[in-house]
Structure formats: structure tokens, C-alpha cells
Give the backbone structure.
Amino acid sequence: MAAGGRAAWLPEAARRDCPERNEGETLANAAERDREAVDRFVERFASVLVEAGIPRMPARVFAALLATDSGRLTAAELSDQLQASPAAVSGGVRYLVSVGMISREGEPGSRRHHYRVHDSVWDEVMTGRDRLLVRWSAVLRDGIKVVGADTPAGTRLAESVQYFEFVSAELPQIFKRWQEHKAALARGSDAGS
């Protein structure tokens, strides 16, 4: 801990004057966490995202946002937490905003922006993937015409189209089941309170 009992790992702005951090995440709550363990989690999850094709800095930014109680940080806070340059963080948030994984929010009367990961981020990501599957299927259908439906390549492309169409048709049911499951979990936690 830094002098005055404030957690040294917190962004400078949070350590200075701010008794609370981002919509109710108090310094005391944040300080109770093992910051090194959180940092290791962020880097480990970022590595998994990199393996899935997300560039490294956007993956680190996303993991950091996901691991904060508020799900909301400024670029300066991200830079401080990730020990990364403002330019690197800027590129990371720009990528994440462009693919819909986070949003940029302004504050009235301020030029500062916060970046937020939404509670429904995985729904949004999967919905985006569904649109991508539809586009892939259309292009693959064109490819079948080009290589010939009766060729080994045409057969492979046709099976890809069938797979993507199957997954795309199943996703709405999966989304519905997830919402039902999430509601049941919420009812269960409300009953236990």
C-alpha cells in the first residue's frame, strides 16, 4: 500500500483525491484484492484472447476492463494499470470500440472519456459472430460455383456452408436459453439474499 493507506496499484487519479473509484468501487474494496493476482489474471485472459485472434493490446485492455467492478476506466487509468503507453492503449480501445466489445462514453463538461465493457458483452460478441457466419456462408456459396460443386474443394466448401448455416440457425435458441438460465440464476441469488 502507498502512504496514507491507499493502494499503490490504483491509477494516480484514484489515489490522489478521489474517495471512490468509478461508480462505487471504493478504494477499500479494490485494496482488498490481491492486485498481483488480478494483474496475472488480466495477462492470462489476454493471452487466451490473443490465441483466439485478438491483437495483444486490445486483449489486455478488454481483460482489464472485465476485471474491474465498474467495467469502466479512462485511458489514463488503463495506461497506468497495464503499464502501457497512452498510444498503445489508444490503439487498443480504438480496436475494441470498432468491433463492438467496448463503448466509449463522454462525461458532460469534460474532455475525458471512459471506456466500458457492457454486462451483455458476450451476447453482443456472439451476435456479431452470427452476422459474420451469414457473410461467410454467402461468400462460400459463391466459391462453390467457382470451384465446382462436384469437386473435392466444392464439397468442402458446401460442408462449411452447411456448418455455418446450422450454427447460425441454432444461435437464437442458445441466446434464448441463456437469457432464461440467467434469469433463473438471478432468481436463485435473490432467494438466497
